[in-house]
Amino acid sequence: MELFGSFxxxxxxxxxxxxxxxxxxxxxxxxxxxxxxxxxxxxxxEDIIVTTSNNQIEVHAEKxxxxxxxxxxxTHKCQLPEDVDPTSVSSSLGDNGMLTIRAQRRPAKHxxxxxxxxxxxxxx
Length: 124
Prior knowledge:
It is built from no helices and nine strands. It has strands spanning 2-8, 24-30, 33-39, 48-53, 56-64, 70-79, 90-93, 98-104, 119-123.
């Protein structure tokens, strides 16, 4: 297992709920897969959106009160290495509220590098 990055929940986004201990996470390399996990147990699946853009993954969740006001919000951003295929991003939500994000590495190429821009959004 190779560690290649980390992410931290922004502290300025607390809207009425205290920050949980352990709001940092570690991104792991498992074979040809990059993976990270975040705790979104305070949110319903329909409150969570995962987006990717230019090898950056963002997990955003927002809980609304019945009157439409925002009760809680949560954002994690993670920059993935250049060799990740942005179209391979997938996510799964466990029964314990842990959201696991995975992305596959691209096969190594020896040709000229052409930068491509992708954006993917997953509504859970």
